[in-house]
Amino acid sequence: MSSNLESAKELLVFLGKSLFSILEAIVFKVIPQPRKNVAGEIVLITGAGSGLGRLLALQFARLGSVLILWDLNQEANEETRQMAQEAGATRVHAYVCDCSRKEEVYRVADQVKKEVGDVSILINNAGIVTGRKFLECPDELMEKSLDVNFKAHLWTYKAFLPAMITNNHGHLVCISSSAGLVGVNGLADYCASKFAAFGFAEAMFVETYAQKQKGIKTTIVCPFFIKTGMFEGCSTKCPTLLPILEPEYAVRKIVDAILQEKLYLYMPKFLYLMMFLKSFLPIKTGMLIGDYLGIFHVMDGFTGQKKKT
Ligand SMILES: NC(=O)c1ccc[n+]([C@@H]2O[C@H](COP(=O)([O-])OP(=O)(O)OC[C@H]3O[C@@H](n4cnc5c(N)ncnc54)[C@H](O)[C@@H]3O)[C@@H](O)[C@H]2O)c1
């Protein structure tokens, strides 16, 4: 009898808290939460030498953060460092780091901890794409995709999460992709790496939540194509629903999501609907939608990043 009462009480508490969390989310949709202050935060951005990484560095420079820039391209990274200083950053540290190499990540991470301090915002942004059909893609290239786009995230978490836990303060940002939400032909290795990055970041969010590490936040970003050159030559058949995004717009949304401590950011918004439809529509209908939106042909004109990194 008493155990029945206990179960009923537990159910009521669960229902009450769930209802409250839904109401709270609705209120925060109408009245946006205040953005957090990142002045003085130590922000590490991987792949800071170009594209989103560079623009993210410039945004955080304007917000007064201390910047740590990682890239394997020293010249490009140095250029970002100078631009960040011109944008107002007073403390910018650029390091050459090949994120696909575990030992190098650990070595440079140790150097960062000694020379700058504990990273409080980690942005796993470095990425590559092979853009080849699965059977035409050499094994080494596929392995590289997984090393850069996914495994590097394991090593950076290992290096920087412990201090975040000790300080009960930190933010983990994963730049995944719309290709981390839906499989795309011609992008098998890239999709695998981006699904893995998404799954890892989400699992780690749940792990920190379950361990009541409330000061540790996570943001997972899934954009469709962005005009950075990475997907040069790719096209969209439906620019109204699936536009190719401007890098400045994408970065503004990413920084906003970080400052609002949002867990998920999908861009454009149509991706939220796509995920909802994917969860219940018959697979044949899903494929018809994919065909109608031209998804099967988005990679047809792929030439990729022109400059060598
Ligand atoms: N551009 C898009 O359409 C698009 C869409 C969705 C997701 N993304 C993701 O956004 C992120 C940024 O992409 P971008 O468009 O700015 O590309 P980009 O090619 O302009 O920038 C990637 C940066 O990562 C660096 N990099 C590559 N391999 C590295 C390694 N092993 N170690 C360290 N640095 C390395 C490169 O030197 C470069 O500076 C990537 O993770 C990408 O997968 C991009």
TrEMBL record:
<keyword id="KW-0560">Oxidoreductase</keyword>
<dbReference type="GO" id="GO:0000785">
    <property type="term" value="C:chromatin"/>
</dbReference>
<dbReference type="GO" id="GO:0005789">
    <property type="term" value="C:endoplasmic reticulum membrane"/>
</dbReference>
<keyword id="KW-0520">NAD</keyword>
<comment type="similarity">
    <text>Belongs to the short-chain dehydrogenases/reductases (SDR) family.</text>
</comment>
<protein>
    <submittedName>
        <fullName>Short chain dehydrogenase/reductase family 16C, member 5</fullName>
    </submittedName>
</protein>
<dbReference type="GO" id="GO:0045814">
    <property type="term" value="P:negative regulation of gene expression, epigenetic"/>
</dbReference>
<dbReference type="GO" id="GO:0042572">
    <property type="term" value="P:retinol metabolic process"/>
</dbReference>
<dbReference type="InterPro" id="IPR002347">
    <property type="entry name" value="SDR_fam"/>
</dbReference>
<dbReference type="Pfam" id="PF00106">
    <property type="entry name" value="adh_short"/>
</dbReference>
<dbReference type="GO" id="GO:0005886">
    <property type="term" value="C:plasma membrane"/>
</dbReference>
<dbReference type="GO" id="GO:0004745">
    <property type="term" value="F:all-trans-retinol dehydrogenase (NAD+) activity"/>
</dbReference>
<dbReference type="GO" id="GO:0000122">
    <property type="term" value="P:negative regulation of transcription by RNA polymerase II"/>
</dbReference>
<dbReference type="GO" id="GO:0005811">
    <property type="term" value="C:lipid droplet"/>
</dbReference>
<dbReference type="GO" id="GO:0043616">
    <property type="term" value="P:keratinocyte proliferation"/>
</dbReference>
<dbReference type="GO" id="GO:0042574">
    <property type="term" value="P:retinal metabolic process"/>
</dbReference>
<dbReference type="GO" id="GO:0017053">
    <property type="term" value="C:transcription repressor complex"/>
</dbReference>
<dbReference type="GO" id="GO:0005634">
    <property type="term" value="C:nucleus"/>
</dbReference>
<dbReference type="GO" id="GO:0061629">
    <property type="term" value="F:RNA polymerase II-specific DNA-binding transcription factor binding"/>
</dbReference>
<dbReference type="GO" id="GO:0003714">
    <property type="term" value="F:transcription corepressor activity"/>
</dbReference>
<dbReference type="InterPro" id="IPR036291">
    <property type="entry name" value="NAD(P)-bd_dom_sf"/>
</dbReference>
